[in-house]
Specification:
Order of helices and strands: EHEHEHEHEHEHHEHHHEHHHHH
Bound molecules: uridine-5'-diphosphate, magnesium ion
Distance between the termini: 29 Å
Largest sheet: 8 strands, mixed
Radius of gyration: 28 Å
């Protein structure tokens, strides 16, 4: 939409449950201001019905424009595409899950009229998990030391940019985009206000701990070369320490003669130095990797279709999608396989935990008591790990009560299989036990999954199942 006052840029990845509610809330918030506006949605390669929803919205509301990527390129790429699409005098970037409340947009517009080029809505961390907010606080504190640009805790992508700020952002050609840093780097007159942290209206966050960690590393490395400087300092400090130590050894040899060779000291020094060298190599590697990506000069994203060039057939209300069912079932299969492999690995870890507890307690307790305690510890551990890591669900008491069923199934099934293997098939006892264990594991996995997930909603705080969205990402 040419010559409009405001563009709203909304990156969407698997938001089919939220996007329509979001659009209604947004329109209801902006229409009363009387400003002309457009909404630029970017479908970041969703594998649900998001694109169909967007096409539908575009067909019923002429203020809606959309671009859909050929695959998931990450939120950074989606924001870039949205900024490129936008025509408004001001542009507001916001998420589709209503965590960025649309009713704040008029306030942002009001502030921009006072001449600010960036109006940032900063969220507080109310209602956020304690661990996550502690990690975020620490991260931002560390960033203060590491980065050349200032990044403030709670200030994410929810902000209004003036046209000249947008043009400045678009003028930066880098492939590895870290928006928080870019927004800070461009400068201009900036103001901010705080709003109350809101929960997602539907769907799940795409940001789990691993992805956040990678994003954090990206942030640290994208904007400066201080980590390299730090590596140099560490190297210098170690060299000094080594020189001091060498002096001390020489003096002590001169005074006391040659003692017994310091095996432990030597080993410690070798390991410590090896670790530091590897870490430094890793840091250098990160920078080299980034240079490599930049030199390839690939586009930030590829477009599947846009509202200007929709792919046939014409959009219909969101009932059928472009083969999303097939893709969904593919990803369902690979998700189950991944869950099963993690379940099996956790099984191995828990067996080791059981053995460790059993062997340790044996010194003080009767062996049967040690066995029971070891067994309980390993079941609790296995339940928590499988809830949090394998199935990414909040553990509940109800699930915990059901969970031992999976061990029971394993015990009974592997016992029966062992019996058949040894007595009827004449297998060697150890081989039969191994085979029985392997065959029984998928069944206990199915029961464990039922025990943990039946009736439970996936926790929005925990990492979603990755359809492995790639590329640059961002999160508040
Ligand atoms: N998003 C995206 N591409 C991605 C991941 C997320 O476009 O690869 C979008 C997502 O649809 C949402 C916004 O970015 O509109 C923020 O994502 P999310 O709510 O998962 O992040 P969180 O609020 O948990 O930081
Ligand atoms: Mg969100």
């Amino acid at each position: 939409m040419k010559n409009c006052q405001l563009s709203i840029v909304v990156p969407c990845f698997n938001e089919d449950q939220a996007v329509e509610t979001f659009h209604c809330a947004l329109v209801n918030a902006i229409e009363p201001t009387g400003e002309t506006f457009e909404v630029c949605y970017v479908d970041d390669g969703s594998d649900d019905l998001t694109m169909t929803q967007l096409a539908y919205l575009a067909s019923v509301d002429e203020r809606v424009r959309y671009t859909a990527f050929s695959r998931n390129f990450g939120k950074e790429a989606a924001m870039l595409a949205g900024l490129r699409m936008s025509c408004g005098e001001s542009v507001v970037l916001m998420d589709a899950d209503l965590q960025h409340p649309p009713e704040l947009v008029p306030r942002m517009m009001e502030l921009s009229r006072h001449g600010y080029d960036q109006v940032i809505a900063r969220r507080d961390r109310d209602g956020e998990g304690r661990l996550r907010s502690f990690i975020s606080h620490s991260y931002y504190r560390a960033m203060g030391h590491f980065m050349d640009v200032s990044v403030v805790d709670g200030e994410g992508d929810f902000r209004l940019l003036s046209r000249r700020a947008v043009d400045s952002v678009l003028a930066l050609p880098e492939s590895n985009r870290f928006s928080k840093g870019i927004f800070s780097w461009i400068g201009f007159d900036t103001t901010s206000f705080t709003y109350h942290n809101a929960q997602r209206v539907a769907g799940r966050s795409k940001w789990g701990s691993r992805r956040l960690l990678n994003y954090g590393i990206d942030g640290m490395i994208s904007f400066n070369n201080r980590p390299l400087r730090l590596a140099i300092y560490a190297g210098l400090l170690l060299s000094l320490a080594a020189a001091g130590y060498a002096l001390w050894v020489i003096v002590s040899v001169a005074r006391n003669g040659v003692g017994i060779p310091g095996y432990a000291t030597l080993l410690t020094a070798v390991v410590a130095l090896g670790g530091i060298q590897l870490a430094t190599l890793g840091i250098v590697g990160e920078y080299v990797g980034r240079i490599y990506c930049e030199t390839k000069n690939r586009p930030h994203y590829l477009v599947r279709e846009t509202s200007d060039h929709p792919s046939p057939p014409a959009p219909e209300p969101p009932i059928h999608s472009r083969g999303s069912e097939g893709r969904a079932s593919d990803s369902e299969r690979s998700r189950t396989m991944r869950q099963f492999l993690i379940f099996a690995m956790i099984g191995v870890v828990n067996t080791a935990v059981y053995l460790a507890v059993y062997a340790t307690l044996n010194t003080w307790f009767p062996y049967l008591a040690s066995h029971v305690i070891g067994y309980c510890v390993s079941i609790i551990g296995s339940f928590l790990l499988n809830s949090r890591i394998t199935l990414r669900t909040k553990p509940t008491w109800r699930a915990f009560v059901r969970y031992p069923l999976s061990s029971l199934v394993n015990l009974v099934l592997s016992g029966a299989l062992l019996y058949v293997g040894v007595s009827h098939l004449g297998m060697e006892k150890n081989v039969a036990a191994l085979a029985a264990g392997i065959i029984a594991t998928p069944f206990s996995f199915v029961v464990a999954r039922w025990a943990i997930t039946s009736g439970a909603a996936a926790s929005p705080e925990l990492e979603p199942e990755p359809g492995e969205p790639a590329g640059n990402r961002t999160s508040d």
